[in-house]
Amino acid sequence: MTTYVLKTLWRHRTRTLLTVTGAAVAMFVFCFVGSVQEGLHRLTTGADADRSLIVFQESRFCPTSSRLPEDYARKIKAVPGVREVMPIQVWTNNCRASLDIIVFNGADPDQIRRTRPIKLTSGDWQTFSSRRDAAIVGRNVARRRGLKQGDQFSIGEISVKVTGIFESTVPAEENLIYTSLAFLQYTRGLDAAGLVTQHEVLLTEDADPDRVAAEIDAELRSGSVATRTRRKGAFQANTLSDLVDLIGLAHWLGYACVALVLSLVATTTVMSVQDRIKEYAVLQTIGVRPMRALRLVLAESTLLCVLGGSGGTLLALAVLGTGGFAIGAEGATISFQPSLGLAVTGVLVSLVVGVAAGIAPAVQAASVSIVTALRQA
Amino acid sequence: MTLVELRGVSKSFRKGDETITPLDHVDLSIARGEFVSLMGPSGTGKSTLLNLVSGIDRPDDGTIIVGGTEVTALSRSKLADWRAANLGYIFQTHNLIPVLTAYENVELPTLLLKLTSAQRRQRVELALEAVGLSDRADHYPRQLSGGQEQRVGIARAIVAHPQVVVADEPTGSLDAETSEQVQTLLQRLNKELEITLLMVTHDSDVAAIATRQLVLDHGKFLQRDAVVAAG
Fold first, then answer.
1. Is A13 on the interface with B (CB under 8 A)?
2. Which residues pair with A327 in a beta bridge?
3. Do A287 and B80 touch (CB under 8 A)?
């Protein structure tokens, strides 16, 4: 009976191909939208989203407008619950939403190595620490910009030597370029000697993030610049708030894609069954049970949907895996990464939609009046 | 020994405001190994009777027993199982599945039975051999002539070794020469393989190959001899 299903699909190759392609395109979009949502979710709920704090200048948004004294780090370090403080100078080529945002984070190389969840895939830490204009580049940026170790990379007033490429368990990290803090502070146009954009605060295991954040702001209130300290996840969600709204809206696009696949496969299967209603009557005459006829139609619609859906999902994962896509604003980025969860979701959605799309025509094939159908020309 | 038995079988249809009753309390017995032909004017219920015996239609009244099984009491699923094991159906227009080869078409009914693949292959090969189409096993219906398609249809009807084979105008769409070949084949199946056959036909020459000829008229059976004598 499997032969029958496969040959039936092959008989109408054009129709099958169009349906499979349609399902593939829709599932491609579904997975792409899904990866953006996953990226946002990872960014705002990841492991370090709640266990690190970002100290930023009060009432400022774009990294270029936040200018905190570097020596605030000493005061912050004295607050109970603070394990480590990393002053960071941030430079970005675009404060608005962009699909090709470049974000430099300047910090102490030893601290970067010790505290960031990154691993060099090429280059070495020694060169990065010793050379003033050295930069290590996140894998996504390297893919997007075609960078490799040894390249000179220039953007705006900044020109760095790529001394390494790194990967990270936190996908958003892979959209960053790290340099030494001093290099960025003295970059022409920034005039940030002794100043940083933000301080990243790592907490002790038992510290209450919100309490520590409040104490930091209270401690620094008497300083030259007022601060606002938030959990890293909340800081990034707030930074990307405009995008968050758009991404929230985009998930409806994902549902629309699923509805599109459902409608497409259901239409094809209904047409196919109506064309062959006499065949189903013949099959039942020779002894095929109604439930088996039902399963044959469901197999047909499911196969169409799973073929197309899996194809679209795989294509989306391949494109996401090689494209290094990210969207960002104000120095924060959302990485579009392929994931096992996305692959499983894509295939499962295809499977469920395939079954759902086949139900109505399957019932039609199973409950056909044999005598009436046999009389059809 | 009676294989097929119809007791008081009635069937009516609504056609607009009119009610047509092609079968009105019909009784019929067919012995095992018998070859019965059924004739009658159009609309007298010949095909309806065939469909009722096959279990693809249900009577309004009466019972039908085939090989000891009261088919009128079976559910739709049980009827399908019963047909797979006990009934072969030869269609007027052969109704082969166009995407399957002759071999695969004949194999279809055996897929519904509990057979090993070797048993299945043996049955299909024997059935194709019986209809003289072993050399056309890999051909698709579109690659066969009308007569060959009908012979594949006959092979499909006998491959499961059914108790009874029903044939609805099996030569109705064939030319004279091919029709003769099919008639000879049906006779051979009846005589050599002792298959019980119930055949509906319009053609009195075709009806004549059967061992018993019945005529359905106004919902009742007449022996053809009686009709001829009365005429």
1. no
2. A334
3. yes
